[in-house]
Amino acid sequence: MYISLEEPRSNLERVLKSFGMDPAKLESEGKLMLIDLGELRIGEREEDQMLGFNDLKDFLSRTLSNGKVDRLVIDSLSAAGLHYHSLRDIRKELFQFGRFLHEKGVTTLLVTESVEGVGLTRWGFEQFVADSFIHMGLEETKGELRRTITIRKMRFTKHDTVKHPLRITQSGIVVEADERVV
User: Fold this and answer.
1) Helix axes 53-63, 87-104, angle to 10 degrees
2) Of 11, 54, 72, 120, which has the most beta carbons under 10 Å away?
3) Residue 160: its pLDDT value, please?
4) Taking a C-beta distance cutoff of 8 angstroms, is the pair 63, 106 a contact?
5) Mean pLDDT over residues 60-80, rounded?
6) Which candidate, 176, 171, 122, places its Cα nearest to that of 148?
Protein backbone atom coordinates (compact mmCIF):
# COMPACT_ATOMS: atom_id res chain seq x y z
CA MET A 1 0.00 0.00 0.00
CA TYR A 2 1.39 3.36 -1.06
CA ILE A 3 -0.28 6.36 0.57
CA SER A 4 0.41 9.77 -0.89
CA LEU A 5 -0.48 12.85 1.12
CA GLU A 6 0.55 15.38 -1.51
CA GLU A 7 1.49 13.84 -4.85
CA PRO A 8 -1.50 13.20 -7.14
CA ARG A 9 -2.18 9.61 -8.11
CA SER A 10 -1.69 10.47 -11.79
CA ASN A 11 1.90 11.56 -11.06
CA LEU A 12 2.60 8.35 -9.13
CA GLU A 13 1.24 6.28 -12.01
CA ARG A 14 3.39 8.26 -14.45
CA VAL A 15 6.53 7.60 -12.39
CA LEU A 16 5.78 3.87 -12.19
CA LYS A 17 5.24 3.73 -15.95
CA SER A 18 8.52 5.57 -16.57
CA PHE A 19 10.28 2.67 -14.83
CA GLY A 20 8.43 0.08 -16.92
CA MET A 21 5.76 -0.83 -14.36
CA ASP A 22 2.06 -1.09 -15.09
CA PRO A 23 0.18 0.29 -12.04
CA ALA A 24 -3.24 -0.89 -13.26
CA LYS A 25 -1.93 -4.45 -13.70
CA LEU A 26 -0.17 -4.42 -10.33
CA GLU A 27 -3.36 -3.23 -8.62
CA SER A 28 -5.56 -5.80 -10.40
CA GLU A 29 -3.14 -8.54 -9.31
CA GLY A 30 -3.38 -7.33 -5.70
CA LYS A 31 0.32 -6.40 -5.62
CA LEU A 32 -0.17 -2.65 -5.21
CA MET A 33 -2.66 -0.25 -3.70
CA LEU A 34 -2.10 3.41 -4.61
CA ILE A 35 -4.03 5.75 -2.33
CA ASP A 36 -4.06 9.50 -2.90
CA LEU A 37 -5.41 10.85 0.39
CA GLY A 38 -5.14 14.40 -0.90
CA GLU A 39 -7.61 13.54 -3.66
CA LEU A 40 -10.02 11.98 -1.19
CA ARG A 41 -10.17 15.24 0.75
CA ILE A 42 -10.75 17.64 -2.16
CA GLY A 43 -13.71 19.92 -1.57
CA GLU A 44 -13.45 20.03 2.20
CA ARG A 45 -12.42 23.16 4.05
CA GLU A 46 -8.74 24.04 3.55
CA GLU A 47 -7.90 23.59 7.24
CA ASP A 48 -9.40 20.07 7.11
CA GLN A 49 -7.26 19.06 4.13
CA MET A 50 -4.11 18.75 6.24
CA LEU A 51 -4.07 15.23 7.62
CA GLY A 52 -2.39 14.66 10.95
CA PHE A 53 -1.00 11.43 12.36
CA ASN A 54 -4.29 10.65 14.15
CA ASP A 55 -6.14 10.91 10.83
CA LEU A 56 -3.64 8.47 9.34
CA LYS A 57 -4.08 6.12 12.30
CA ASP A 58 -7.86 6.16 11.83
CA PHE A 59 -7.54 5.47 8.10
CA LEU A 60 -4.96 2.71 8.60
CA SER A 61 -6.94 1.08 11.41
CA ARG A 62 -9.75 0.53 8.91
CA THR A 63 -7.67 -0.40 5.85
CA LEU A 64 -5.05 -2.64 7.50
CA SER A 65 -7.63 -4.77 9.33
CA ASN A 66 -8.17 -6.99 6.26
CA GLY A 67 -4.65 -8.43 6.60
CA LYS A 68 -3.86 -8.02 2.89
CA VAL A 69 -1.12 -5.39 3.36
CA ASP A 70 2.41 -6.56 4.13
CA ARG A 71 4.27 -3.37 3.24
CA LEU A 72 3.21 0.23 3.63
CA VAL A 73 4.69 3.48 2.31
CA ILE A 74 3.60 6.86 3.65
CA ASP A 75 4.72 9.77 1.52
CA SER A 76 5.38 12.02 3.30
CA LEU A 77 5.69 12.68 7.01
CA SER A 78 6.43 16.30 6.18
CA ALA A 79 2.91 16.74 4.81
CA ALA A 80 1.36 15.25 7.97
CA GLY A 81 3.49 17.62 10.06
CA LEU A 82 1.73 20.63 8.50
CA HIS A 83 -1.28 19.73 10.66
CA TYR A 84 0.57 20.77 13.84
CA HIS A 85 1.57 24.15 15.23
CA SER A 86 4.77 23.22 17.09
CA LEU A 87 7.73 20.87 16.78
CA ARG A 88 6.83 19.50 20.21
CA ASP A 89 3.38 18.44 18.95
CA ILE A 90 4.82 16.93 15.76
CA ARG A 91 7.38 14.91 17.73
CA LYS A 92 4.82 13.66 20.26
CA GLU A 93 2.31 12.62 17.59
CA LEU A 94 4.98 11.09 15.34
CA PHE A 95 6.28 8.90 18.17
CA GLN A 96 2.73 7.72 18.97
CA PHE A 97 2.18 7.05 15.27
CA GLY A 98 5.41 5.03 15.14
CA ARG A 99 4.23 2.87 18.04
CA PHE A 100 0.89 2.35 16.31
CA LEU A 101 2.65 1.17 13.14
CA HIS A 102 4.89 -1.15 15.14
CA GLU A 103 1.83 -2.74 16.78
CA LYS A 104 0.27 -3.32 13.35
CA GLY A 105 3.27 -5.46 12.36
CA VAL A 106 3.41 -4.05 8.82
CA THR A 107 6.81 -3.26 7.31
CA THR A 108 6.58 0.50 6.81
CA LEU A 109 8.61 2.99 4.82
CA LEU A 110 8.09 6.50 6.10
CA VAL A 111 9.24 9.09 3.58
CA THR A 112 10.42 12.46 4.81
CA GLU A 113 12.27 15.31 3.22
CA SER A 114 15.40 17.18 4.02
CA VAL A 115 16.24 20.80 3.50
CA GLU A 116 19.51 21.16 1.64
CA GLY A 117 22.28 22.32 3.94
CA VAL A 118 20.14 22.13 7.10
CA GLY A 119 20.13 18.50 8.23
CA LEU A 120 19.27 14.94 7.39
CA THR A 121 15.51 15.34 7.89
CA ARG A 122 12.92 18.10 7.94
CA TRP A 123 12.64 18.27 11.74
CA GLY A 124 15.76 16.42 12.85
CA PHE A 125 14.02 13.66 14.84
CA GLU A 126 12.16 11.48 12.35
CA GLN A 127 15.00 8.94 12.30
CA PHE A 128 14.54 8.22 16.00
CA VAL A 129 11.08 6.72 15.41
CA ALA A 130 12.37 4.06 13.02
CA ASP A 131 14.39 0.89 13.39
CA SER A 132 16.21 1.82 10.20
CA PHE A 133 17.15 5.08 8.55
CA ILE A 134 18.09 5.07 4.88
CA HIS A 135 19.24 8.36 3.39
CA MET A 136 18.85 8.76 -0.35
CA GLY A 137 20.55 11.72 -1.92
CA LEU A 138 21.27 13.39 -5.21
CA GLU A 139 24.85 14.61 -5.27
CA GLU A 140 27.21 16.15 -7.72
CA THR A 141 30.18 13.89 -8.33
CA LYS A 142 32.75 14.63 -11.03
CA GLY A 143 30.43 17.12 -12.70
CA GLU A 144 27.32 14.95 -12.83
CA LEU A 145 24.39 14.36 -10.50
CA ARG A 146 24.23 10.86 -9.06
CA ARG A 147 21.71 9.22 -6.80
CA THR A 148 23.22 7.91 -3.59
CA ILE A 149 22.17 5.72 -0.71
CA THR A 150 23.54 5.42 2.81
CA ILE A 151 22.23 3.15 5.56
CA ARG A 152 22.58 5.49 8.54
CA LYS A 153 20.85 3.23 11.02
CA MET A 154 19.79 -0.40 11.09
CA ARG A 155 18.81 -1.66 14.52
CA PHE A 156 19.66 -5.18 15.57
CA THR A 157 22.19 -5.80 12.80
CA LYS A 158 25.61 -4.79 11.57
CA HIS A 159 25.35 -2.93 8.28
CA ASP A 160 27.34 -1.15 5.61
CA THR A 161 27.62 2.57 6.42
CA VAL A 162 29.35 3.57 3.16
CA LYS A 163 27.63 5.99 0.77
CA HIS A 164 27.04 4.12 -2.49
CA PRO A 165 25.69 5.20 -5.88
CA LEU A 166 22.33 3.77 -6.86
CA ARG A 167 20.31 3.49 -10.03
CA ILE A 168 16.58 3.04 -10.42
CA THR A 169 15.87 0.60 -13.24
CA GLN A 170 12.91 -1.31 -14.63
CA SER A 171 14.03 -4.23 -12.47
CA GLY A 172 14.20 -2.15 -9.30
CA ILE A 173 16.84 -0.30 -7.33
CA VAL A 174 20.43 -1.28 -8.09
CA VAL A 175 23.02 -0.32 -5.47
CA GLU A 176 26.58 -0.18 -6.76
CA ALA A 177 27.98 -1.96 -3.69
CA ASP A 178 31.57 -1.95 -4.98
CA GLU A 179 31.60 1.82 -5.49
CA ARG A 180 31.84 4.58 -2.90
CA VAL A 181 30.73 8.18 -3.25
CA VAL A 182 33.13 10.57 -1.57
Assistant:
1) 10
2) 72
3) 93
4) no
5) 90
6) 176
